[in-house]
C-alpha cells in the first residue's frame, strides 16, 4: 500500500494511509538490513524498504503491513 511519511509540527514522524483515511503517529522504529519497521499508535506494523537515514519527509513510499 502507498503511504505518506511526514513530520508534524512537534517533529514527530507520522504515517498517512490515503485508502484508509488513516493518520497515525509512529511510536517505534526498527531498522533491519533492507527495510524500516514502523509501529504505529494503532498497533499496525509497516515495513518500508529503501529509506535513507535520516528519513526525508514528506515522501510517498510503498509499505507492507506486517500484522
TrEMBL record:
Pfam short name (any one): NifT
Xref: Gene3D superfamilies: NifT/FixU-like
GO process terms (BP): nitrogen fixation
InterPro entries listed in its UniProt record: NifT (IPR009727), NifT/FixU_barrel-like_dom_sf (IPR024044)
NCBIfam families noted in UniProt: nifT_nitrog
Protein name (record): NifT
Organism in which the protein naturally occurs: Acaryochloris sp. HICR111A
Gene this chain is encoded by: nifT
